[in-house]
Each structure stands twice: as C-alpha cells, then as structure tokens.
Specification:
The chain is mostly helical. It has one domain: Four Helix Bundle (Hemerythrin (Met), subunit A) (Up-down Bundle). Helix content is 67%, strand content 2%. It has 9 helices and 2 strands, in the order ααααβααβααα. The protein starts with 21 loop residues before the first helix and ends in a 10-residue tail after the last helix.
C-alpha cells in the first residue's frame, strides 16, 4: 500500500492579526458614506422638477466632502505611524465609489445625456472610460505602494482620482451657480465633457504630482506662508459660499497644471512649494 500523501496544515488565521486602526478607517468610512449619499441624491434628482438642481448641488457637495475625508485619513495614519495594508485597500475601495462611480454617474446623467441626446450610448461610454481609468489608477497605486522602497517616492504617478473628482464636482458646481436663473448648464456641458475625458487620460498618465506627505504638525514654514494661509482662511470665513464657488475650481485646476510645469521648476522652487526635506530627488 502506498503511504498517504502528507499535507501541510492549513495556516492558522488566529496567528495572523489583521491590524485595523479605528480613527483613519473611520475617516475612510466617512469618505465612502459621502460617496453613497452622493449617488442617492443623483438618483433622487428628477429633471424638470423644482428641486432638481438642488439635489445635484447636494450630491456635488457630498463628493467634495468625501475629498476632505480622504485628505485626512491617510494623513492621520501617517502622523500616528499606523499605516496598514488594510487601510490602503479600504481607502481605494472607498475612493472608487466616491471619486469614480459617483462623478461618472453624475456627469453622465446631468451633462452627457444632454450633449449626446438620443445617442445615449456614447454618454455611457465616456462615463465608463472615466470610471475604468480611475480604477486602473487606484490599482496601479496599490501595486506601487506594495513594492519595496515604495516609501522613497513622495510623488503620485498620474493625476490622483480624488483631485479629478474634486475638479469635476467643483467645476460643475460653479457652472450651476453661473446659470442659477436659467436652471441649465447650456453650452458649458461640452466643457465638462471635455474635462472628463482629459482627466481620464491624466489619471493613467505618467505625469508626477507631489503628494505633500511631508506636510504635518512638525512641518516648518516661512512667515510669508503663514500670513498667506491666514488671509486665505479669513477670506473663506468672511465670503463663505461666494468665494467657495471660485476657489475650489481654481485650486484643483492649479494642481492639475502644476504637474506639467513642475519639471521645469528649479529644485529650490519645488522644495519651497512642496515643503520637501533635503532628500534625494526620486522623481527624476
């Protein structure tokens, strides 16, 4: 009789403890919640009704709020030294909903449907391209982050999907504000459609963007930057919604353009803008 084939014992899951940190993952959950609410508001928005644009504005506001949650979850994890593979994967799943599905669905329903009219299949195609490029961007980011020496680079490869969603949402919000009386986006629909396609390409591009991971409680700065920051916060508090409509599109557009002009800047300028430490430049 042949001897029974020896089998290796199955790994004991109790020995491997999955580290799930409360605060950063709570912020990521807030990001995911905002994305879900944005989707429900888009579905609730019925064209031709009195509260149609109110529902659309609310969905845009939730996408922008998700950007704030996404800004702080990773930063909190780094400040506390509690980064984990679970947090990275959870963050990507939340980003795909809040910054991939929600903006693509919103632009398809509010913008592209009017642009292409009876050729609605084209509108779904363009929106799906944005979603696929965003998913590819997140998957590539996770793969690069898992590679050895990945922490050496402080750059994002391709335009970050939260910034892409923030630009689409803030630009749409500004156009709605312009056409508040007409209750229509008019010819601005074409601009948003072009921006969506361009951002799709930028997310999967090899253009590098600073992540600003070095910014934190221990970061030093100049007196001029403190005064500029204080004036910026003061303007937001005083002007509130009026300046918010204009500041956010300008902010995200400036970040998008910065990736193109960044290679032509001197190292001193880049260090001043990005608050870099004196470390070897990994981007070149």
């Amino acid at each position: 009789m042949s001897e029974p084939i020896s089998q290796k014992p199955a790994p004991d899951d109790s020995d491997a403890k999955l580290k799930i940190y409360f605060l950063p993952n709570l912020l990521t959950a807030g990001n995911l919640f905002c994305g879900f609410v944005a989707l429900t508001k888009i579905v609730d928005a019925v064209p031709g009704t009195d509260n149609y644009f109110a529902q659309i504005e609310l969905s845009l506001a939730f996408i922008l709020l998700a950007c704030i949650f996404d800004l702080f979850d990773g930063r909190v994890a780094r400040m506390g030294g509690i980064e984990s593979p679970f947090g990275r994967e959870f963050d990507s799943l939340a980003d795909l909903i809040s910054f991939g599905v929600a903006p693509a669905f919103l632009v398809q329903r509010v913008v592209l449907a009017d642009v292409f009219g009876e050729y609605r299949q084209i509108s779904w195609l363009i929106a799906s391209i944005y979603l696929l490029c965003g998913a590819f961007r997140l998957a590539r980011f996770n793969c690069l982050a898992a590679m050895p020496n990945s922490s050496a680079s402080k750059d994002f490869l391709g335009f970050p999907i939260p910034s892409a969603a923030g630009l689409v949402a803030s630009l749409t919000l500004l156009i709605i504000h312009f056409n508040e009386k007409e209750k229509s986006l008019g010819n601005w629909n074409y601009l948003i459609a072009v921006v969506l396609v361009f951002l799709s390409a930028m997310m999967v591009s090899t253009v590098r963007y600073p992540s600003f991971k070095s910014l934190g409680l221990r970061s030093t700065t100049t007196f001029l930057k403190i005064i500029t920051g204080a004036l910026f916060v003061g303007c937001i508090l005083i002007l509130r919604e009026k300046i918010l409509y204009y500041v956010l599109p300008i902010f995200f557009t400036a970040y998008l353009i910065y990736g193109f002009v960044r290679p032509s800047l001197s190292r001193a300028w880049r260090r001043e803008i990005e608050e870099e430490d004196d470390e070897p430049d990994e981007a070149n």
